[in-house]
Each structure stands twice: as structure tokens, then as C-alpha cells.
Amino acid sequence: MAGVHRADLSPGPKARCAPCRCALRLWLRRGSYQRQGDLNTTSGLFGNNIYYSYGLFLTPTNLLYAAPNVSFTPLKGVRVAAEYGFAWRPDEFDAVYRASGAPWAGTQNVRGKKVAQIARLQAVWTITPRLSFTGRYEHFKADTVLQRANLKSSDFWAGWLSFRF
User: Fold this and answer.
1) Among residues 14, 87, 119, 164, which is most buried (max CB within 10 A)?
2) Mean pLDDT to the nearest integer, 29-47
3) Which residues fall within 8 angstroms of residue 127, CB to CB, at 6 or more apart?
4) How much is the CA Rg of the chain, to the nearest whole Å?
5) Buried b / exposed e across 101-132, counting CB within 10 Å, b at 16+?
6) What is the average pLDDT across 135-149?
7) CA neighbours within 13 Å on the CB side: how many for 58?
8) Torsion on CA atoms 142, 80, 22, 18, rounded to nearest 10
9) pLDDT at residue 135 greater than cutoff 60
10) Quick one: how far is CA 132 from the chain centroid?
11) Backbone dihedral region of 57: left (phi > 0), alpha (psi from -120 to 50 degrees) or beta?
């Protein structure tokens, strides 16, 4: 089960400030519970994990994720989105999984529910109707489970130019 719930807080047509949208992103995926191999972990069959993180930190197997977010237009042609999320694992006897589907090393051997906190910031500048630049930053802060498995926090930076023809 995955979903995004949105509340539009845009001002009326005569308002002088830029429209602002608030949303709450919710993901819940418990896994198949068909334990496999020596690690005794589940298997998730997902082909594209970019939906969950551009940094490819997590996959939606054994994951509960909640993230309030806001997006706004500070300048004409610039859209900014910010999000702060919290990730937990529903089954603490199962591993935490990275985007490749492989378990994070050692997470199947430690107990705890809190996996990480993830801060995201993205800005899209529409230069022309066919040309835009996107900048994105994600900070993945390791929480209890990852820390107990001796895993660290990480950052992801990206920028790309899109030309539509």
C-alpha cells in the first residue's frame, strides 16, 4: 500500500503571494514474509525505486514512511519543493532494504524500528517552455537501526538540464 495525500492551500485568485501546496506522503510495505536464504530476509520485486529516493537509499520492502512536504513558487518560473520524512521498519526481525533490493548489511541482526530521517529539497527553474533546470538535495540521516548496524548517514546532490522537443 502506498499513497500520497494532498491538501491544496493555494490562495484565492486575487492573493498577492505565490501558491503554496502542502502534502503528506505515506508508504507502507510489509514484505512478502517468505523468508529466504541464509540471511532470512524477504524479497521485494520492484523495478523502479526512484520514486522512493533519488539517492536510492531505501526500497518499499519492510518500510513505513511518512513525510509532510510543501511546494511553492518563490519567483516566476521557479518551483521549490521541500520534504522531511521519517522511515521505520514494521518487522524488526527483517532487514532494512536498499533500492537494489539487497538488505543493508547487518540490519537483520539488530532490533529497533527507527530506520532514518530524510530531508529533501528540489528546485525546478523553467527557463523556456522547452528548457528547464532541476537541482535536488537529499540528506539521509541514519537512525537507531542503521546506527546499531554501524551504518552512517549520507547525502545526495544532483542537477540536470531537461530539453523537451
Assistant:
1) 87
2) 54
3) 77, 133
4) 18
5) eebbeebbebebebbbbbebebbbeeeeeeeb
6) 96
7) 30
8) 160
9) yes
10) 23
11) alpha
111 and 118 Cβ atoms separated by less than 8 Å:
no
Other Cβ atoms less than 10 A from the Cβ of 138: the count is: 21
Give the DSSP H/E element, type plus range, for residue 145: helix 144-148
- Distance CA(99)–CA(59), nearest Å, equals 5
Instruction: State the sign of the Cα–Cα–Cα–Cα dihedral 47, 53, 56, 59.
Output: negative
pTM: 0.76
Cell numbers given for 27: 508508504
Q: Are 105 and 151 in contact (CB under 8 A)?
A: yes
Q: Coil, helix or strand for 2?
A: strand
> What's the whole-number mean pLDDT along residues 28-47?
55
Average pLDDT score over the chain: 82
Place of cell 519543493: 81
